[in-house]
## 1
Amino acid sequence: MPEKEEEIGTVVSNLEGPSPNQVDFVVLNGKVHRGQFVEIPYSEGTLIGMVTNVLKTNKYFERADAVKEFEAQGTKLFEQFPVHDWEYIMAVTTPLGVFTNENKIKRTTFPPSPGSKVFNAQPESLVRFLGFDEEKGLELGNMEFHPVKVKLNLSRLLQKHFAILAQSGSGKSHFISCLLEELLTRKKENGRVAIVAFDVHGEYTNFAEPVMDAKYTDYSKHTRLIRARDLRIGVPKVSAGMFYSLLPNASPAQKRELSKVLQRLQQKMKDGQGPYDLNDIKGELLAEMGSKDAKESVIAALIGWLHELDDLQLFGKADNPSLLDLVQPGVLTVVDLSDIIHQHKKQVIVAYLSNRLFYERRAKRIPPVTIVLEEAHNFIPQQIAKEGSITKGIMRTIAREGRKFGVSLCLISQRPIQLDTTTLSQCNTQLLLRITNPYDIKHIGESAEGLSAESLGMLTSLRVGEGLLIGEAVNAPTFFKIRQRNSQPSQHEGTLEKASIDFEENERKNKKETEDLL
């Protein structure tokens, strides 16, 4: 990159500007790229802008009809005229803010003058302008056109929630792995959070596995793995409100009846009769059948619903494992949902654990916690009412109130248009990776503040591992390359070719073992 003394261009005047919204400059030295930051001397200090488009033009080729007529005669323009001397590059730039002479940052309210020199933005200027935390920040990548590490402040990134939006195969899981690595290696004196990741596809279970290859970092000592098939929810820990969410169409009479039974069982437990499960609730309801005031239709409906819950094989007399024992500062708890096909069962697990995390943190019985939710659009859908999605209510609550209590959300989705807009609007920082679906792009543009149409249009051209960061964690939209991960690859990663080769190799081994046995 050129040093500041080497100017890269000069501001020009045209119909679009210069204005507080757009500054164009002709490139004099080197190359200029979309997403690059530049500096321009300004009446109040130094203007910082981002190049949003680069145009190459030539006066000899401006009129298509003239070019066609001339070239049709069999003579090339470049053979007759000095066309290369008239080729030049124009860079369209969006002003982002101003470093004032008092070392303050303010918005651009007045354009720079035509003829002003344009310089490549200096690393120290970008670190200050974008608000990177060089001392304690989470190192997640590098800026593409500047020698600057992207190191984000923990609170600015996570406290007001974080969303990662991208199509499948664009690097979401890779980025999350890098984020988890940074959180797990964070020093105690810099502040640590607990992490609970709801892993739909088993992509983060590798963090819990000992490393056999020395080139990878071992995070197993800081990771706890919960297999969903082994998980049990302690019925005494399920509040009446939680039961109501599991029974979205319950009538007021059913809710009153269930509430009475739960209160009785809670009192019996306090009196030393021990914890209870779903069978005990059903037993209490059956006992009610004989009373003269009982409404048999109400009780029968509740018992039928409890049978459905029992079929999920999720509920017991106590939590297993204990949530409070697992949630610790600097520790990752991976809830592996990959072996569950039933979406309703997944919803129950995510809703219950998220509800417990929120209310336990409100009571300050657990440390500040970040909840990572893969495939968020399946748990917090836009088109389904809260009554039809068990997790929607608690996630909306955490999105609205979590920052006050130290509970943050990290939502990951490949279909932003299907993700609940109320929850998404509370994610003050968003990482956008490659997205090509026009409906998703339009949806992001409508929900993301400070994202220009030019930056939005660049999403389709991003390569795997490149992203655009916007929102609370940075002071201006920032394109960057995600760093290499230190953790071992997930067992689910790999190409189609490798999977087919592995399958045939296993088939060959199995066939040989069978033949040897016979």
Note: The mean pLDDT is 87.
## 2
Amino acid sequence: MKRSKRTEQLMLVILIVLTAGVRFWMAINSTPVPYPSESNVLNAVRYMTENATLDTDFYNHPDNILILCVFLVTNLYSMITTGNLISGSISSIISRTIDASYFASHFTEYLAIARCVNVAFSLIVVFVCYKIGNRLKPKCGLLAAIFAALFSSYTNWSTLLLSDTCLMALLLFAVHYAMKYLDNIEDNKYLYATTVFCGLATIQKYPGALSVLLVVYLVCVKHQKTFQESWQRYFATVIGEGIKLAVLYFVTCMLFAPNLVIHIPVVIKILISESRDTHLGSDGLGYLGNLWFYIKCFINQSGWIMLGLSALGTVLFIKRKQIKNVVPVYLGFVMMIIMSKLGLHWERWSLMFHTSALIVAAYAVVWVYDEVIPSLAEKRARMAFKSVTTVVLAFVLVVLGSNTILTVISRVQPDTRCVDGGVLNEKGITPENTYYESYSAFCPGMRPDTEFDFNKIQHVMISSYMYDRYKLSGSRYPREVDMYNWLSENCEQVYEISADPEYSTIMDQSIYTEFGVKNGIQQIVFNLSSIAKKIKSNDDYFGPTIKVYRLSEDQVEVFIDMLGVNEDA
């Protein structure tokens, strides 16, 4: 038994080391073009460094745990490698003689290091999935960890400086300690640990506050015997316990994010403004549409069989009357159901749902191996059933693995927004005579609100990361859609660069394009053919399709009218 346990732990170590190697390599070699949210994190870290404060001055997400870790790691890295902080020498920061060019010249390097911090959180996710799986059933943990390590959404988002992977690590810790508490309900330290991690999840990203429902559940279970004796005393006891844990929750938030408490009026305004059902490119599906969107994303990354295994695991939990001990695992489903009420859909928001489904699926597979197969009377039947189960599991792993390999390949391709400026200059396309939008070659991130001299306009540069989102929003943006159609139908296209569609990851497809559901065989064939094509060719790009149109003098006037510039003025 001990030897089997040591073998399992050794396999876990190997899995984490391999996962770390791939993801750290991706983080270092991924496109140097940051997502807008990545820039927000680094700008907050820069602000903290230059003002010698732990106030992030950023409250939208709010990313406090991630920002704090990046602040410590990037400054430590900079001190070791250059002897300076990320914004310059300590003396220049104290004297307020900071040279802004110092941070800018090291931005790409700091971005890669910061992404590595997020990779570390993703490895924690793999480890905690292992711990949670083993609490459900021996041997389940390793398979749950493998599923999480191979799931392409984790591979993609863990190598970018976004809040979701860090949030997942904190939520899974809350789930883990909740399960430990349910196994030993007399030991309150696990209840307190769950509450602390719920607080940390909240200050990482506001939807993390939904994890408080887990604490409420634990308190109700703890005092269920009291309910049988007297429901009045039960409610009094539950309320008293709830107040005590609420204090611990808020103290946790105060200790790790006092800036959110100090600036609570700002936080409230942001919560109100962010609790909306409209966001360019991610609205209009409605409640059921959002739910189906997240389910499609899960299927397209892991296959229909994995969805069936998750359903089987759920049935087993009910049949075996293990509801009390596994309710924490379903926190992801609860969060998805609640979050889907908001009319927005970003694939990475459903990582908690994905993770819950992966863990439950791992439980179902181990149950088949440990209980169904041994229960068969005939040896031939056992061997046949075991062979079929092994083939099914191998098929699922190939779907997961090939999706992840394709994600890795796509993420390390040259970005279409990082093209050689000389190519554009040869065609007379410059920032001065070209009207350009966000996510284009002249504006890799979100375009700032700067004035543009329309008297000099000769070209228009557009990006699929913008026009796809407008077109997906249906009738909400008719003027913008008409403008894109007018450009393509009436103006001369003088330049285009695009990513090979086969290297576009499933995450980008789910955000920027309409996509259907592929079965497992289609996924494997598509992925393997794309990987083979990549091996033969190194000339493919990742990123949006960028197009440039030349405008005549008359067309310039029409374009300005379509933009509504005069109306805005």
Note: The longest helix spans residues 379-411.
## 3
Amino acid sequence: MSRRTSAKALPKASAKTPPVGTRAFTRKARAAEQQTARKQAARRQTAGRRQRTRPSIRLGAVLQGIPTTAWVCALVACLNAVSWSFITPPFQAPDETDHFAYVEQLVKTGRLPSSSAKTYSADETIALQDLHWSAVHLQPENHTISTRAEQQTLQKDLTRVSGLHISGTGAAGVAASEPPLYYALEAIPYYLGSSGTLLDRLELMRLLSALMAGITALFAFLFLREALPGVPWAWTVGGLGVALAPLLGDISGAVNPDAMLFAVSAAAFYCLARAFRRGLTPKLAIAIGAVTAVGFLTKLNFIGLAPGVLLGLIVLTIRAARTSGHAAYRSLALALAIAGSPIALDIIVNQLSNHPTLGLVSSAASSAVQHNSALSEISYIWQLYLPRLPLMHNDFPHILTTRVLWFNGLVGQYGWADTIFPPWVDDIALIPAGVIAILCTRALLTSSAVLRHRLGEIIVYLVITAGVLILVGSASYVSFPKEAAAFPEPRYLLPMLPLLGAALALAARGAGRRWGPATGALIVVLFLAHDLFSQLQVIARFYG
């Protein structure tokens, strides 16, 4: 075949008719453009739906992100505190008489208490009389009422007085100088129980505190998830250990702002741990500031945690500034503004009500002036927790405060600190406590490289702990030497419950991969047994 023939056989390309390959490419391009347009339209439609329902989706995403085990720990803590609320007689929990009077004052008058006198309302006074409160209070040899006649008399008197209009007395005892947030929340169950007697309202208020115990355990678990991400099963050990802590159930089973303080403190630990692991975002800065503000409005003891929280914000800001620049400092300013707002409000309220400017903190700060020696106060605070150093004056002769005041108190000191275990129980408790301490130390030593990398975070937690200890010691020093230890109650240490959970989780990990889960299960069983025997001890004290 010649070239001419072959050339004629080929079709001539036309300007109006693209080649076959070109037409296929054009169809594919048009299809791709149409698909892209459909995707963009779908994205705009989805974005519109998200914009309209953003709050609920965000809340749902947050709740879905919480593991089921965390909810189980919260439920266990809540039910445990509920059981404590049932077995503890009315007003036989620390300062519950004053905390109830604060709520009643708030509901009846709409004003904060104006006096620290122990002048209770008519219904509370009648209840205390019929319950033989003064005879049972701080006298372990006396039991609460138990006969049918005593119960009928109590119920009759409370029913009679419940229909009367009872005005507030303006007095709330030691609770008078506390911030109002917890008491304002407790006013809700008080109002819901207004159709019943005083004891009905008291139990409803106790149930709200029990709910806060569940929140404490929930945030303790979440703290462990952020602080110890390596071994998830260890989170359950620490979370259940916190949930079953007898002292948490004892305090959270009563009307006491400590119940809310524990929950807020656990939330602060969680927010800090999350920020250290994921970075300080504006949302986390707002969360830390809001939790701190709630803490200040809950109880003045939260001031002990404030230096550590502030240090944490500063460290996190310096880290975030390396990548986000000035935005990190704006987040810090926002967090500080939110956190500091209740302090200014509390100062104004205390000034108008003739209270100390910062309540307990003001009294503690004046103690050094009263004793004319800051060094003596430092020495006292040291000896309140640790063995005396050689050059220190012996403020606690004949006792080792670490063991007698704190360890024995954590083993078993309930009610008005008048319900305790026999001394041999405290001695036996040293064995499991020592084993847990050894295993925890082993886990820390095997993770020394990680500890060096997270040194800033660890220092923050240590500063929080030191702040709480110093606050309690300074408040106790106000009454020294008239009282050697005015505030030796271990419940003041419970804001550090998340750190207890971390110690238990580390102890389980310290047993190694093979024995770690079994050791963790044994720790949980140990805490369960401790909680059950503690409840039996309270039952024997008041009803035996």
Note: Residues 212 and 260 are 6 Å apart (CA to CA).
